[in-house]
What we know:
Layout: H1 4-42, H2 49-84
Helix pairs in contact: 1-2
Amino acid sequence: MASIEEVQEGVLGANQRAGDALGAVHQAHESMRTALSLLVHATAGSPQADVSRAIGLFSQAVSGLDEIRQQIAGGISESENVVARL
C-alpha cells in the first residue's frame, strides 16, 4: 500500500496533467466557437444542406468540448477531495 505522501504526490501529479489538458480543451473550445461563428457569418442565407450540416457538426463539437471541460474539472475537484481527506 502506498504511503499518504505517495498518494498525495500521485494525485497532485494527476491533477497537474489534468489541468494541462483542461487548458488545451479550453483553447480548443474557444477555437471551435470562433470557427462556428465565422462559418455562420460566411454562409448566412445559404440554402445548401451542407451548410446546415456543417453548422450542426461544429455546434456539436462546441458542446462536446464544453462537456469534456466539465468532466475534467469535476475529476480534478473530486481528486482534490481525496487529498484533503488524507
